[in-house]
Amino acid sequence: xxxxxxxxxxxxxxPGNGSSDQPYQSLAYAFFSTPSTExxxxxxxxRKDATAEYGEPTQSxxxxxxxxxxxxxxxxxxxxxxxxxxxxxxxxxxxxxxxxKKIVLTEDPSLPQPVKAKIVKLESLRGQRxxxxxxxxxxxxxxxxxxIVLRDGTGYLQAVLTGNTTKTYDAVTLQLEASVELxxxxxxxxxxxxxxxxxxxxxDYWRVLGSAPGAExxxxxxxxxxxxxxxxxxxxHLVLRGxxxxxxxxxxxxxxxxxxxxxxxxxxxxxxxxxxVQTQVEGGATLFKLDYYGQPAFLTQSSQLYLETCLPSxxxxxxxxxxxxxxxxxxRRHLSEYTHLxxxxxFITFDDLMSHIEAIICETVDKLLANxxxxxxxxxxxPNFTPPxxxxxxxxxxxxxxxLNEHKIQRPAEDADGNVxxxxxxxxxxxxxxxxxxxxxxxxxxxAERQMTDIIxxxxxxxxxxxxxxxxxxxxxxxxxxxxxxxxxxxxxxxMPGVGEIVGGSMRIADMEELLAAYKREGIDSAPYYWFTDQxxxxxxxxxxxxLGVERFLAWLANRYTVRECSLYPRWPGRATP
Length: 578
Ligand code: 4AD
Description:
Oligomer: single chain
Strand order of the largest sheet: 9-13-14-23-22-21-20-15
Bound molecules: 4-amino-1,4-dioxobutan-2-aminium adenosine-5'-monophosphate
Number of domains: 3
Shape: extended
Number of strands: 23
Largest sheet: 8 strands, mixed
């Protein structure tokens, strides 16, 4: 009779072997590992730990352990079944893979010659044989049928593959994001079924143009909805292949076209201004400086000064140009490089300027909504979008200060050097800013401005900012007799709910002496600005203009959380990759 030992303290079930040197830990395992025919012929010796003697287990312990051993046996059987099933699947897949190598797909020459087309152009080709190239956006296998959603940048197309077209090596190993060429007959989908465009391609011939990896390197392993924001930023080139990101960019393109059309209707001419400049527009603190053949130069902050020089030659003008701001702002509305839509108009009043901005924005939105394709994009991205009603609310800077105080929206207090004053919060123990009421002369901070805009809930023209808060070139507001308070400017910001400021504009100083005094006041050397000053020398005129942040406008229109989603490859402090 053989003996199996169990030491409940230092024994090990697996890989123990039940000898006195390597005892098992549990009696159940000891029964489980004894063949059933041997159980009766085996003696079991059990002890609590090394300090106790080995002895026979009690009857009740034996009964319980035998039951537990049955459970272990069931578990083992299940594991074996699973393993065998997996082996079968693997073998089947391997067989399928080997078989697939023998299947060669050839195009049937008796079929009609296919028409090569982009997805967006397919509707008129229904019933015909077509050839479409694109990327595998989605893939689904259903018994012997393979469904592919193809993406070519102009749209999505559902393709159905059956028979040998699903059995080739390329079909068996096809991964998402591979590029393929599909050929087949385009058929309207039956009533009650849905597919992009209302049709599907019944494929009779296809080939892979560029494969994509599976397993670890598979597209969905590199990127998915749970990916960390920094990974999403590093993989922006892959993110762009997604439906949301590409819809935003598609809307962006439509938006720029619609703006251009609106400007054409208002007789503004498009010009292309330089990015490399030697003058500042919006203050030295946000300039990206560079060495330009040994001379100091900057990346442009705004094309405004150049647009102003175009007025006497081309009339009212606009440009769509990148602007650069070296702001250390990590907010959801700041970029280091952004697309700046700027316009300049001659012989206008401040009132004309605000009416023009309102007209351009509303007419552009109307154009987008009148186009079914862009209207659908807006509906997808921002289902609750309603076009703003006109006229836009106009609120003077002084009234905004009063409004903020009435609504108890405060600002952090600052010391004489502009540092925020803090106080320890009793409850949290953290240093928190001391909050105070706004006063006329304060710069309205982003947070307060947003709160106000969100409460009011409609576009607001905030106008008449104090001269000392604004850039050197702004025209002063005429002062009424006996008027107190800071000198204000004919300047306006357009604030939109959810985003805040999307447009900044003003009337410009038209008088040369006044401009020279403004350079002086701001400590700007007038020499590099000779060409800008000359505008006041040779036939000056009342004029004004504005800049609109395209990404901010798009964030408002498409209800995006941040402007970073509204740029192809956004740049912010520390980020210029990819
Ligand atoms: O208010 P800003 O600084 O005005 C100008 O640059 C004027 N020279 C424009 C002009 O009158 N031609 O900028 C205008 C707009 C802002 O309202 C905002 O929408 C956008 O440009 N903007 C930014 N967008 C993203 N990131 C930034 N860092 C931005 N700074 C300004």
